[in-house]
Amino acid sequence: MLYRKMPRIAEELSILGFGCMRLPTRNGEIDEPTAVRMMNIAIESGVNYIDTARPYHGGKSELFVGRALKGVRDKVQLATKLPSWLVKTREDLDFHLNEQLEQLQTDHIDFYLLHALSAGRWENLLKFGVMDFMEKARAAGKIRYICFSFHDGLETFKKIIDSYAWDMCQIQLNFLDDDYQAGVAGMKYAHGKGTGVVIMEPLKGGNISIPVPADLQNAAKAAEYQKPTLADLGLRWVWNHPEVGLLLSGMSAPEQMTQNIESAKKGLPETLTPKELDFVKAAKNLFVSRMKVPCTSCAYCKPCPQGVDIPQCFANLNNASISGNWEAQKTNYNYVLSGDRDGRRAGACVECGACEPKCPQHIPIREKLKEVAAAFETD
Ligand code: SF4
Ligand code: SF4
């Protein structure tokens, strides 16, 4: 495992962090034996940064992490987040932090992030004296580093960065989203101000980790790229930036984890060759030309009152349009979203609109679900 150091952080952190947002599931619940096995593989391989948050897995991710870290808590840096959208009073701030400490079975959280800040949420939190709360929590030893995660435009990002000497910020970055939200420009800006940068969605919710498409075989050959999927390229593109402290991968299976750990062995800054960078460019062009929905599978839009599994619907649509294999995706879609499974298909949407304001990518979900239904729910 390789490690990097962020300016205001005392510890060296593994360049791969374990994001507990897409843990393996069984019958709609976290598949705990497999997830624990993944936690063990991660720690044994030198991963020392574990990330969770209140909404992940319907509130059960923090509870899982609390259990999984019993006996090994001191081997890792633990990150979780204040659910900024649920804060309506000053007391809410204390309530969430105290409950998180309890659920995580720890006396301190190393990295405490204001979760998914946007202009509106930041303004709202300021009304309740959020930075005073954070500093008092730090003075009391409940949290160690003061951080935020972000989903909004670059100007808002700069404003938030300028407002405080943040220890770390967490932003979305991948080779498809280099100029989206904070993007590369935001990453450089934060780094220039001494704020550490953690990357989320390095593979755009799995959209990048597809088998190397036929149209990219030549570029792959020129770059001497031997991996079966684009995941390695996507991760190494992120690590290629010296400003990046670490990236979080929301791994859902032990195999993904071992593959990512393998990639992390080569994650040194500024090591992608010109041919590999050309390969990234070709991949980006292909993706952009084929993607139907900029969904990152973050699941903030869930739960839908009708049970529509929105990210799954969009993943199938994008995978089909990127791979060109519509029949396989139709089969997968109807298998995953049918029978006794939890998720419903796009056709179950009644267009109530409840999901759309929750989407950080501002996707017109209702309209796009109609495309999904038209593609996969007709004979
Ligand atoms: S608009 Fe459709 S998908 Fe969105 S919450 Fe309502 S029913 Fe669910
Ligand atoms: S539709 Fe939006 S909120 Fe829902 S998973 Fe995709 S990006 Fe996230």
Can you put this structure into words, describing what you see?
The protein has 379 residues and is of the alpha/beta class. It folds into two domains: 3-289, NADP-dependent oxidoreductase domain (TIM Barrel); 310-376, no CATH class. It has 14 helices and twelve strands. It has helices spanning 32-44, 61-68, 90-103, 119-127, 130-139, 154-162, 183-192, 217-222, 231-239, 254-264, 274-290, 310-323, 326-336, 365-376; strands at 3-5, 12-14, 16-19, 25-26, 29-30, 49-51, 77-82, 109-117, 143-150, 168-172, 196-200, 246-249. An eight-stranded parallel β-barrel has the order 3-6-7-8-9-10-11-12, surrounded by six helices. Helix 6 links the parallel strand 9 (143-150) and strand 10. Helix 12 (310-323) packs antiparallel against helix 13 (326-336) and helix 12 (310-323) packs across helix 14. It is globular, with a radius of gyration of 20 Å. It starts with a strand and ends with a helix. The relative contact order is 0.11. Bound molecules: iron/sulfur cluster (2 copies).
